[in-house]
Write a structure and sequence with these properties.
Helices cover 32% and strands 25% of the residues. It is an alpha/beta fold. It starts with a helix and ends in a 5-residue tail after the last strand.
Length: 481
Amino acid sequence: MTVNDDAFTNWKNREEIAESMIPIIGRLHRERDVTVLLHSRSLVNKSVVSILKTHRFARQIDGAELSVTETLPFLQALTTLDLGPSQIDIGMLAATHKADDRGLSAAEFTAEAVAGATGDNKIERREARDVVLYGFGRIGRLLARLLIEKAGSGNGLRLRAIVVRKGAGQDIVKRASLLRRDSIHGQFQGTITVDEAHNRIVANGNEIQVIYSDDPTSVDYTAYGIDDAILIDNTGKWRDREGLSKHLRPGIAKVVLTAPGKGDVLNVVHGVNHDMIKPDEQIISCASCTTNAIVPPLKAMADEYGVLRGHVETIHSFTNDQNLLDNYHGSDRRGRSAPLNMVITETGAASAVAKALPDLEATITGSSIRVPVPDVSIAILSLKLGRETTRTEVLDHLREVSLTSPLKRQIDFTTAPDAVSSDFIGSRHASIVDAGPTQVDGDNAILYLWYDNEFGYSCQVIRVVQHVSGVEYPTFPVPVA
């Protein structure tokens, strides 16, 4: 047998193992509301090849490829336990078991590591919480995809309605088509049908009511059977408490804004300050995509080294508020053609840091340049640290944060030498540390942080909504603080 035959046989064996994992992952999700992760990446509804690629990706952050032969015993062990709703990272189970010197079997170690989700410790499955999307643009449609995806267990969050202004001619058909096909993020994973008679879009069995309105105060959501819902405002039209309070209509309990909030509205970056949300708070902002990208790594650096001051320069993809060709715009430069120019503009991300990290005394300044790419941006974060360090130490620290810390869903890490922006389309992390261009000189550090300013940000919004809904289930093994 040749070397090539050996490699191919190995691949086919791993394919067979990955194939056997799919029904186990599906049953755990549907029947017990357990989401199986691999280094913070969900394996629910993933193909054989996707599962294998996710295992292989571990080599970039942990130094070695993770094999399905290593994780399968831990996945099988989960099926023997009385599990409650939770997120369980089999990559972390395999890694921590390897480092454990007590000689426990995979089953014994798993039972101990996830004990907080079993028996008397497990939490009860909760009734689905209604969600309404106010606006159905770039972020609104991605949020819809995520909500539909996460409705697989029948619990958690349930998208009940979208509210839009009615367009001319086959409005609902066109909106369904935009949900079905996306030039950046690809095809919708599932089936979509339209019930024009009742103004509904049915996506993977989820009936979504389309409500036409030009004024939030004119809608009675209880008329559509919607109750105690969380409304996500994707329009950005109202950003202060007074404006957003217009959404607090019958059937709506809380409002979440997908833009920086003004005044006393709490700006939340999940993973960093979401625990500051008071149970009775009705108005919440998820800040901006750039704020979500820079705050988690900034916190990771501040906690370890201290940060005295910093500057962030964002190279940002163009957005729908810019013009395709030169035309009038309320801002000075955004009227110039977005796909033809680099456009210097402002960013509020730096000033928003103080709201998300109130204990950080460092001054953070910022600026931004819009560039001719449709998605994925990069933030260059230049920091004056509280002590001297080395490039190796910083990268080791950030790699470990991305693997084991409470920020592992926010911070990803790559060592790929040829990584470019399109590689990060669809990333579910708030930002991805690029090890290659990272620079450290004594107490000065420059970090390069990629982020999918559409999808990664939408994932952060969903995490906030899950938190305020009480359906943000615990993760095991418990991340190291």
